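Protein in question quoted in full.
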Amino acid sequence: MNTRAIVECFFERLLAGAVQDVAALVSDPVDWYIPGNEAVAPWVGRRSRRHEVEAMYELLLRNIEPVRFAMHDIVVEGNVAVASGEFASRMLATGKVYESLFFAHFTVVDGAIVRYRLLEDTHGLVRAMTPA
């Protein structure tokens, strides 16, 4: 699959909750980073192995209820893609809805995601995870 197909497949599998299938798109090792407060949201941070990415998504899906997702754009140049969109998720620990724009940066080599960065409203995530 080409870079665009990998990125589209990534989001399709993620939206379906198919974390093993998402992880299958990731190289091992991988350079994976989602900036944020790991003490508040342990699914953010660095991962370097495929099984860590899979475990991270399993943890995320145990802690949120997806509310809304919209993909705006996927821009591809060679083996690099940037996806933008927005989402809303209910934080199960607090019941609060977290809404954010997102930008995901992918590098794909030989049909696998070798580098991933996700930018989202990390301040909003901390607020949503903080009890009232």
User: Anything to note?
Assistant: The chain has one domain: 3-129. The mean pLDDT is 97. The first strand starts at residue 26 and ends at 34.
